Amino acid sequence: MGLWAWVAGLAPAQATVFGAAIGATFGFISLTGGALFNAKLNRDRDDRLGDLERLALLRSLATEITLIRNLISYQIREYQSPAAQGQTWRSSVSPKLFSLLYPANLSKLLGLPHDALTKVIIFHAAIDEYEYNLKTDGANFPDNAPIAARSFNFPVSATPQIIARASALRDSADSALIHLAAAVADFEKRLKKRPETSNLVSKLD
Known about the structure:
The chain is mainly alpha-helical and 205 residues long. It has one domain. Helices cover 74% and strands 5% of the residues. Strands 1-2 form a two-stranded antiparallel ribbon. α2 runs antiparallel to α6 (159-192) and α5 packs antiparallel against α6 (159-192). It is rod-shaped and about 115 Å long. The relative contact order is 0.13.
């Protein structure tokens, strides 16, 4: 009651100033609140879009590593088959041929879950090490072959070592795939809880 009595006792000019000040204060509060709320909505939207992008990248990396793993398994079976009589060299192709997504998305990898990212990096480092060790085992990459082909020849006598190295590389792929699958499941679960992204996740399946 005291406040209203005080306001009622103000001169017309004072009342005008007081009213303008009150209006400006409430206006400022409204604008600030609206701006903060809008910023939160934008952050939520960016987080959702970022999660969808990371989910797509995780799935793509898993697909690529699965392809490489299948190639390695096929090569191991081929290497285990007896060489033809009198054969001293074998021909094959490096799994690095199919490592395309990883180097093309290095700037986006840091946004992936730590465990999955670590295993993916370890796997691709293992591919580089595998290709290097092929050369130490006597393999050679023909000078006239396109670099993109990454084809090579290796002596039949080196087959056991190469099988062992290929098996270790396949194990690294399996480990990466396990962690990628866990990360994909986590992102899917998180996104499907949001009505606005649940349909988008289903379309990615």
